[in-house]
Design goal:
The protein is α/β, with parallel strands linked by helices. It has a single domain, classed as STAS domain (Transcription Regulator spoIIAA). Helices cover 43% and strands 29% of the residues. Strands 1-2-3-5-7-8 form a six-stranded mixed sheet, with helices on both faces. A two-stranded parallel ribbon has the order 4-6. Helix 1 runs parallel beside helix 2. The longest helix has 17 residues. The radius of gyration is 14 Å and the shape is globular. The two termini are 27 Å apart.
Length: 129
């Protein structure tokens, strides 16, 4: 299993799926999001990945960070599934994503297994194409 971590996040790859999880509760700032994206690019070896991104411990994600992610955060991804805490957050997140028109398939889930299933479906479709 391939792993990489820094002071606040851990990444690992299992069966062709990239996973990440924050080590503690975080208020993301611009420096932190830059380090997260850099670490993801490193573990991905600058190749596209299917990513399960557990954001349950994120307590703040300011607009400047969202803007940075819109520009640089979707590189080297085939798809991303965010794991969040509540169904209300999931609804809001997915509504926002539909309006935003992400460069890659991106969806929020409250269940990790369903997130992985969704990414595997995308992977299988891409492999067949």
């Amino acid at each position: 299993m391939t792993e990489l971590e820094n002071e606040f996040i851990r990444f690992w790859v299992v069966d062709g799926i990239l996973y990440s999880e924050f080590k503690c509760e975080v208020n993301i700032d611009l420096d932190m999001i830059q380090k997260i994206i850099e670490a993801r690019h490193t573990i991905s070896n600058n190749t596209n990945q299917y990513w399960v991104y557990d954001v349950k411990k994120v307590k703040a994600f300011p607009k400047e960070c969202r803007d940075y992610v819109d520009i640089y955060g979707q590189d080297f991804l085939y798809g991303c599934a965010a794991i969040i805490d509540s169904h209300i957050q999931k609804f809001l997140f997915n509504t926002f994503l539909k309006l935003k028109k992400s460069k890659v398939p991106f969806q929020a889930f409250t269940n990790k297994e369903k997130a992985v299933e969704w990414l595997v479906e995308i992977k299988e479709k891409n492999d067949q194409a």
